[in-house]
Structures are given as structure tokens and as C-alpha cells.
Amino acid sequence: MGVYKIFPSQDTTIYTDYNTLNAGLDAILDLSKNAPNLYASSSTSRVLIKFDNDDISDAISKSGINYTASLKLYNAHVDGIPTNFNININPLYQSWDMGTGRFNNIPESDNGASWQYRSANQTNAWTVTSLPAGVSSSFYAGNSGGAAWYNAYSASQTFNYFSTKDINVDVTSIVSAWTASVIPNNGFIIRNTGSIEFDYNYQYTFNFFSRDTNTIYPPCLEFKWNDSTFNPGSTPYVGNNNILVSLTNNKSVFYDSEYAKLRIYAKDRYPARTFVTSSLYIYNKLLPTESYYSIIDLNTNLKVIDFDTSATKLSNDATSSFFMLHMAGLEPDRYYKVQIKSIIDGGTYIYDNDYYFKVMQTVE
Questions:
Q1: Residue 276, SS3 per DSSP
Q2: Residues sharing a CB contact under 8 Å with residue 192, sequence separation 6 or more, in sequence order
């Protein structure tokens, strides 16, 4: 498989108006801007999210050096956002503790990262002044905090009224800097663009599911690479779209520790007549090299792995077309469906014949 996802080890939201509050166990990550409470600017928040070095190394060992890495967060609720605005993503300068607090805890929890502090019990204040070259911070006067970040490695995403509100940003340069030990992996900080972050004229709701969500939409770091190979031997390619497509090597149930080869068989729906001693329907053909797969969560109909002209390209050998799938990149205890897309004679065709399977968690 040319797609592999890892999930966060830590995430939280830090708030200007609740500057010692920890929200490490909230099911929502919050980039909203609200009416001011304590300070003379609208209340703003930032998101911190971290992925373990071991998980990143494991993903890269599967993909090799020619990968792209994308940070993905799924929108939970949006309301009143500006017509056009950006979010900025940078690697964090300092480490932090996620904590186990929630926004609505009474009394307020301070056992992890907050706007002013990066550790529990209001200890280890964020270093936001006298920073080394290449490191920046920003905060409203009289309310210092909000973490600091490296400037040389950055990513951003632009949103408008009609665009999807999910975050999907290429962060390959940041991940590469971590794995090369150029900067330490303290995770990402996600911020509203500087021009509106502390501007009281902007107020809106912009929420994402966190690692503690009970949905199938936790944040992830998605690695993609091209693993396709073509060794057709003497097996012919299909000549038209009048074909029967089937999925084989499908056990129906896979464990999340498995790395599966799923084969795609294609046969002519109306084979040409010829004098042979066996059925014409047993002769397999290959799908064109412009063929791709996607994986869909069966319950929600969400494409958890979308068609990609590089990362989900089908391979082939003399037996059939096929693709490789790391089951660990999928959420366990869910049912999934495979779709196949092929470009045949200039036309685009989708094959969706209820190719279902379930991923189970490995019990050690």
C-alpha cells in the first residue's frame, strides 16, 4: 500500500482567556475565536498535536525515502467563519504535557499544557521572549504564552466559504527535519493566521475531532508513496470496459498487524469465441496501468483512503492486478469496502461490487 496513517500520541487546545486551563482529554480541538472575556481582544485558541518518533520511523520504514506526509484533521463543527482565511502550522520549539483536563471541568484542571504553561500544575512556563534565531512567538500584551515555534519549517492552508473545512496540509519538510534530527520533534502548533488571531472583529467556531473522539475521525499523519510495479509477462490488458471485476485474497477479516496482497481479477464479460477445451471465462486479464483503489468506511461512506494517481496505483504481475494494504493504517473494529477506478480507452470507470472486509485489533 502506498498510504499509511499514524495517530497522535498527544493533542490539546490552549486558550488565551483560560490561560492555565488544560483540555488534554477533550474530544474536540478548538481553533475558534470568541468574544473577549479577560483581555481586550477576542478570545483565541491554538492546537498542539504530537506524533511519536517511533511511529514516524515505522511509517518511513514502510514507505522508503520518497514519501509525502500530510497532517489531517477532520472538521466537527464550523460556524460564522470569514470568507477567506488561513491557518498556519509550525513545529513546536519546546516539549509539553498533554494532561487529562477537560474544558468544562469544575474546578478547572491545570494538570497539563495551557496558554501560559507547558507542564502540569502551572510549571515550566512557555519560553516566548529572548528566543534564539529562527524561533518566534506571538501573544496579546499582558497575556504572555501560547508556545513558540520554528520559522524555517512551516505549512499553511487557505479556507474560503465553499472549500472543505478539513485540514489537509503537506508537512513533509517538517517531518524530514525531525527525522534528520535538525530540530527536535515536539509536535505541531496550529494557529489562526496572524492578521486575525487577535482581532476582535473576527468571531467564529472552527472545531476538529481530537485523538479522544469516539468517532472514526481522529487526527492523523498520512504518509503516501508510489509502490506500484508492473510485470505483466504474457498476460494481456483488458481492451474495453465490458469486463467483470472481482477481488480475491480477501479473507473478509484481517488483523491490524497484517500486510495483505489483494488481487483484482478482470475477465471479459463477452469473450470472443475461440476453439479451446476450457471455459473462456477462466482467462484473466490485467486492468490498465492507470488503475487505482480507494478504501471506504462502510458505516459512514467516508473515503479513508481516496483515489490517488501515485499512492493508490494498482500493480500487476503475470497473475493479476493487485495492491498491498497495511491494515495498521486503518481503524480496527470497522468494516471497509474497496472501490477500483480504471481509465479504459479514454473513459473513467468505477468498479464497486461490494468488496467488503473487516479489520480486527490484534490481541497479543
A1: coil
A2: 31, 33, 44, 46, 85, 86, 87, 88
The letter for the amino acid at 167 is I
Per-residue pLDDT of the chain (364 residues; tens, 9 = 90+): 589 999 999 999 999 989 999 999 999 999 988 866 665 556 899 999 999 999 999 999 988 878 999 999 999 999 888 888 899 999 999 999 999 999 999 999 999 999 999 999 999 999 999 999 999 999 988 889 999 999 999 999 998 878 889 999 999 999 999 999 999 999 999 999 888 888 888 888 899 999 999 888 999 999 999 999 999 999 999 988 889 999 988 999 999 999 999 999 999 887 665 555 454 445 689 999 999 999 999 998 989 999 999 999 999 999 999 999 999 889 899 999 999 999 999 999 999 988 999 999 987 6
pTM above 0.85, yes or no: yes
Specify burial of residue 250 (Cβ count, 10 A radius: 0-12, 13-18, 19+).
middle
Cβ–Cβ < 8 Å for 22, 12: yes
Q: What does the block give as the cell for 110?
A: 491545570
Q: Could you tell me which residues come within 8 angstroms of residue 230 by beta carbon, excluding any fewer than 6 positions away?
A: 289, 315, 316
